[in-house]
Amino acid sequence: MKKMRAAVVGYGGMGGWHVEHLLKSDVAELAGIYDIKEERSELAKSRGIYAYPSYESLLQDPTVELITVAIPNDSHEEVVIAALNAGKNVICEKPVALSLESLDRMIAAAEKNGVRFSTHQNRRWDVDYLAMKQIHDSGELGKVLNIESRVHGSRGIPSDWRGEKEHGGGMLYDWGIHLIDQMLMVFGWDVKSVYCLCDHITNQEVDDGFRLDIHFQSGQRATIELGTYNFIAMPRFYMRAEKGSALITDWREETQVVKCKHWHENDVLPVKTAAGLTKTMAPRDSVTTDTYRVPRPASDVHDYYRHFIKAIRENGEQDVTYEQMRTDLKVILAAFRSAETGLPVEL
Length: 347
Prior knowledge:
Layout: E1 4-9, H1 13-23, E2 28-34, H2 38-46, H3 55-59, E3 66-69, H4 76-85, E4 89-92, H5 100-113, E5 117-119, H6 127-138, E6 144-152, H7 171-187, E7 191-199, E8 209-216, E9 221-227, E10 237-241, E11 244-248, E12 255-260, E13 271-273, E14 276-278, E15 289-294, H8 303-314, H9 322-341, E16 345-346
Parallel strand pairs: 1-2, 1-3, 3-4, 4-5, 6-9
Antiparallel strand pairs: 6-10, 7-8, 7-16, 8-9, 10-11, 11-12, 12-15, 13-14
Helix pairs in contact: 4-5, 5-9, 7-9
């Protein structure tokens, strides 16, 4: 299959990431980049990458079929719609929009022009998330009751536009959209309600951390926590299910599983604690549980591009659907309302 010609708008951090992957792609060919900052265009040229002199010149290039947009969040809509109206397929960095109305205008432009539009949910290919999803979907631990997902750092919120409200900054929009999308991919898209608390430790303008509880119509629950002022990180994932538990301490580690073989015990020996004896907290042993590790799943993040380009070529369904994009954003917006009111918000 002939490679699809692609260009990247915004040659910053994520724009550079996209360029790096497109240069090595087996399904796409990099046509060039466009950035409003001259120094970034010059940097691209110094690396042998073509830099379009204007956005209009990029849109007028008939060889370009796909444009990836990696610019500040508040600038997405105008740039995306211009590309869609020019007949280009578009991948937009997350969060794709700051309101449902904005997202719907972009979707409408894609449908009107008969082209494809997607947001870059690349963390669907994270191996730690895939391990949790694999255990959930396999049913080996029975019905999963809840999953806790945490990402902790200690350097505060980035000092660029991500720390400014007018540009759609904050960690709910930054990491939150990825972690929410992962949990909806595991538990499904029927969200009942959310409850959110936001941190403002190093930044008073936008959230520099949050704790979000998501309740699903199925009765299952997800807890998502993002911290930028945590000098000791808590485990990346913890799963509690009917027949056991699973733990991933760090994204680089395998999954630890303890599966319950026998529930009732007649000869449980109490353990002595500082305040007395307890049977309730007595440790399990190999008679009643199996303990094992699950290897890290295989994953290739460039499958996002492979699948999207295949959907374009074959008129198939794309991985990140419009309804999924809308639900992810609904949860984000409900989380903000919950943090403002201090109350759960129904979807």
